[in-house]
Task: structure prediction
Amino acid sequence: MIHDVIIIGTGPSGVSAALGLVRNNVTPLVLDVGYTYTADQPQKIEKNFYDYKKENNLFDLMIGENFHGLTNIIQKKDLPPKITAPRMAFVTKDADTLSPLNSSGFHAIQSFAAGGLSNAWGAGLYRYTDDELKDFPLKASDLTPYYDTLTEEVGISGEDDDLTRFFGSTKSLLKPMQLSKKSLLLYRKYKKKRHALNKRGIFMGIPRLGVLSEAHDNRSPCDYSNLEMWQPHLPYIYSSFFTLKKLLNKKQVEYKDGILVNAWSQEKNCRVIHGVRIADQSPVSFKTRKIILAAGTLNTTKIVLNSKKDFTTKLTLLDNPLVQIPLLFPRLIGTRIEKNAFGMTQLNMVFNYEAFDTLLQGSIIELTSPSRAVFYDMFPFAARSNLVFIRSIPPAVMVMFLYFPSSKKNSGYLKLKADGMLELECEPYKIEKKTIKGVLRSLSRLGVLTHSSLVQYPKPGYAIHYAGTLPMKENPNQLYQCSRYGELYGEEGVYIVDGSIFPSIAAKNSGFTLMANAMRIADYIGGGWHPQPKMPPHRLK
Amino acid sequence: MPHLDNDAEKLYDAIFKKEIPPSLSKSFFEASKKLELRYSKDDITRYQKYLEKVKDLEALEYACRWFNRCPLLIDKFKIMVFLAETLPENHHTFVNENTRSIFNWLFMGITCLHSAWKLVKGFFLLKAHNIKNQ
Result:
């Protein structure tokens, strides 16, 4: 049997591509390893995290029988807290064996779960502006209909505020999420000083989150129970797994899980996808007319290089340089923990200084959801003193993740070695101290305490916004470039729809643009709505 | 690994000044076994020696953290803190549910003095037991 289209991957880009095809009445076959969370564990939490914690032993929830919660200590890793929660173990399950990496200078995380990394993401969903698309063969208006469709599918909270001009249209947004006490203080302070701050190029507003502030599409809204770090598939945090399930229920896609795709080859009138069944490692193949690769930048690029048996080419690898800035609210030291809060992004800031050659974006994150023990070695005191500080300081702290746009000077490379291992390398990011000082000065104007000695500079790759290996070009003319429709140069019928094809990434989460672009390409493949008057001839009949 | 039988008790006492619950002792034992796979036999032997000879493990761990010595001891302290947080009886050690700002400021001040004393003591313990950066 020859399939019309096969999609590889069920992350946000793969599922958005499936949506794009479905609305053109094309039924794709979707392949993925597709690990899922099996909710057969004994503790099902129905109430607030802290109320529950007070009464129950949380070993299963916070550590897990395989000690997944201690991964960062036992295996000397530096994974984000959400990835180390035992119930989130399925998100990165077997990643080291299914796609081994040699990445000493690059912090790489891969997922082979159904829904990919969207099972554990921050769900920040931002539109790109024309400025941010300047390296793309696209305009923001090309993506607008897809942004709009996906806003309704996902359910995005947010509002029209000072950041609208950076984050795009507010069409169909749900009401904003309820702010935590600290965020309210900060936002009020900003509003008081707004005029002066705006003149300096500093803007603050409500984030655009794929988190439900009200019921949407049969999913319940956020209950502010602080469970975000611990419980997968909370109905109010969007994961592409939800859309996949919906498409499967409506029989609009075919889905085969337990398949790891390695490469494709060309046959006379079709392409053959080669992979292995995870269960018994037996080889498996599928014939198709068109392939949509959406396995995530690292794995998609690996499949491309492996198909071409290229073990020498080094491809550019991008990620957002990121710094973490703790924000201390001195008056709140020693106050009680905010039990009813949303423990993820609360506010966004944009720094659009004339002195900087680029626009920076900060996501201000509430720390009510992670375990308190993660703060243990952040204080420079003896063990028992640190416990006192753990109790007193975190209720007065938030963290800003300050994102920089990708740039050539801060890029790494990716190469596939003959033994099947991906080699990733990147020099430590070069971030100018004066830029950080400028941001810190702006923050101090808002009444929060911080200092350059407290700023953390994580390893390249920590933002987990990998991109740039197979960039889209207006006129692709060499290997490993893609057309504006994601078609790989020299490989008719092979389309790339994930972060690999982003020629650059803006200082914001690219997830939403990735989804919109995937849907746009799938719409083109399926022969539906298209903004370009002239279409290449090889569209699906 | 005979030292694993009693190190949980000693470390828990050093951090929380109370007797370790049996369930925690068991999970610490299992976690320690996994952790020690990353360390050499020499590292483990040295750790065992310090555990036997040093009474004030809190001071020793603090000095180790400060002067970058004996990472196994530092990791074991961290593991104990992570495991201890899962117990409901330790909830109030980790989570502040009452606003008592002045009391907290005072307590943090006192605790800084406590840390200073532990650092001095730990420094002399490092010297006395010849604990070097391996």
